[in-house]
Design brief:
Blueprint (H helix, E strand, L loop, with lengths): L9 H11 L1 H23 L31 H37 L1 H15 L3 H12 L3 H10 L3 H14 L3 H8 L4 H9 L4 H24 L11 H11 L8 H28 L5
């Protein structure tokens, strides 16, 4: 009796290696739980994060409010998970914009090469020399603080590294046999890039995406801490940390206003970076 041998794609092999990385695998499930909690917890509680009860202002954690209340008497637990929902959304949406620009830009530069490649990459070098966060702060101050503007601006300032990564991958692939065959068949440049190049570089793209999300979330938290990010009635972890920091005083330390949102932010950034490191090791076949 003949046994059928089923081959495994490079992506399947990489995912198998990723599952064997205990720290990355645990971080992945922990990150999934955190993400789902930001959706489920605000819906499952009877406390409305918008309702202000001033007589319950800055209550310490208790049986009714497990994480205490903020300066306006609102349930800090609900606000923390609502803030996580905004922080996750900003990180993911800004990363999508960053990848869309970076992948397209880098693929075109690497495939065309010549003077076009030189001009495009010199433009990237110029952008690298600019103080990105300073420009983001100026843009937020000019155009206002809205959720839409936050992730668009952060995404538009986060694509340069991805462009360089994709360009390097495309330069190594453009001389391969399957690309030469596509050219011989008369396939257009756009089709070669979209149908042959980009699918073959998804590994590095996925890895860098997982590392871009925590970077963007940290930038959004920094902006919100300065009062230039998400504004009321919406909130984010950066906003909550800023509010908690403003409530600190030498007489009484309202520790829960900083510890809980800060801990959730730190844990999320740690798990995202662990997942990114695990994916990088899994897709890096040269180490195998």
């Amino acid at each position: 009796m003949e046994l059928a041998i089923q081959g495994r794609s490079p992506t399947q092999l990489a995912l198998g290696r990723f599952r064997k990385n205990r720290r990355a695998w645990i971080s992945f499930w922990l990150l999934l739980v955190l993400g789902l909690s930001t959706v489920v917890v605000p819906w499952s509680t009877s406390h409305d994060f918008r309702t202000q009860t001033l007589e319950r202002s800055k209550e310490a954690p208790n049986g009714t409010y497990w994480m205490g209340t903020d300066a306006n008497g609102r349930d800090l637990m609900v606000r923390t998970f609502m803030g996580g929902r905004i922080s996750f959304a900003v990180g993911l949406l800004a990363t999508v914009i960053s990848l869309a620009i970076g992948v397209a830009y880098g693929a075109i530069a690497g495939f065309i090469r010549g003077k076009t490649d030189t001009l495009m990459m010199r433009f990237v070098d110029v952008l690298y020399g600019l103080p990105h966060m300073f420009l983001v702060i100026i843009a937020m101050a000019i155009f206002g603080k809205t959720f839409l503007l936050v992730f668009i601006i952060l995404g538009c300032f986060s694509w340069m590294t991805m462009a360089r990564i994709v360009r390097g991958q495309v330069l190594s692939l453009r001389e391969k046999e399957f690309v030469e065959a596509a050219r011989a068949l008369g396939v257009s440049t756009g089709s070669i890039i979209s149908r042959h190049m980009i699918p073959n570089i998804l590994g590095p793209v996925i890895v860098y995406a997982t590392l871009t999300v925590p970077s963007v979330m940290l930038q959004e938290s920094f902006l919100s801490f300065l009062g230039l990010g998400i504004s009321e009635p919406q909130t984010s972890w950066g906003v909550l940390i800023n509010e908690g920091a403003n409530s600190l005083n030498p007489i009484r330390v309202y520790w829960w206003l900083v510890v809980f949102p800060g801990s959730f932010l730190a844990l999320t950034l740690f798990t995202l970076n662990s997942v990114g490191d695990g994916l990088r090791d899994a897709f890096d076949v040269q180490q195998r």
